[in-house]
Design goal:
Number of helices: 1
Shape: globular
Strand content: over 45%
Largest sheet: 7 strands, mixed
Distance between the termini: 25 Å
Radius of gyration: 13 Å
Oligomer: single chain
Strand order of the largest sheet: 5-6-7-8-3-2-9
Helix content: under 10%
Structural class: mainly beta
Number of strands: 9
Length: about 110
C-alpha cells in the first residue's frame, strides 16, 4: 500500500488468490471527519506483519482519543493506520492498498 503522494509505502501479507482479507467500515465521527466522507474502511493486520517500507519518518502519529493512535503521511495527509493501545492488531485503510481485490467487506461499526 501507499499514501497518495507515494512517499510512504507499506506491505502486509496477502492471502492466496482464493482467500480474501476481511474489511470493515467505521462510521464514528473521527473517521468521517478525517476521511471527508461518511465512513472509512479498514482491515486488521497483526502489528509485526505490517511493514512500512519507505519513509517511515514521514508517518505522523496523533492520539485524539484516549488509547487510540492515528497515523498519516505528513506530506499528503493520507490516513494510513490506526491502533488501540495494547492491541496486537493495527488497522490499515483499505483505500491505500495496492490491490483492493483481495478484500472482502464484512460489516460496519459505529464506535
Amino acid at each position: 500500500g501507499a499514501c497518495l503522494c507515494g512517499k510512504v509505502t507499506y506491505t502486509i501479507p496477502i492471502p492466496s488468490t482464493n482467500e480474501k482479507i476481511e474489511a470493515w467500515s467505521c462510521l464514528c465521527d473521527y473517521c468521517r471527519v478525517s476521511s471527508g466522507t461518511f465512513f472509512q474502511t479498514f482491515l486488521a493486520v497483526l502489528r509485526p506483519e505490517l511493514k512500512v517500507t519507505s519513509h517511515p519518518e514521514l508517518v505522523t502519529e496523533i492520539s485524539l482519543m484516549p488509547g487510540r493512535t492515528r497515523s498519516f503521511c505528513s506530506v499528503c495527509s493520507t490516513p494510513l493506520f490506526w491502533s488501540r493501545e495494547g492491541s496486537e492488531w493495527i488497522q490499515a485503510t483499505v483505500a491505500t492498498l495496492d490491490k483492493e481485490d483481495v478484500v472482502r467487506y464484512v460489516r460496519s461499526l459505529d464506535y
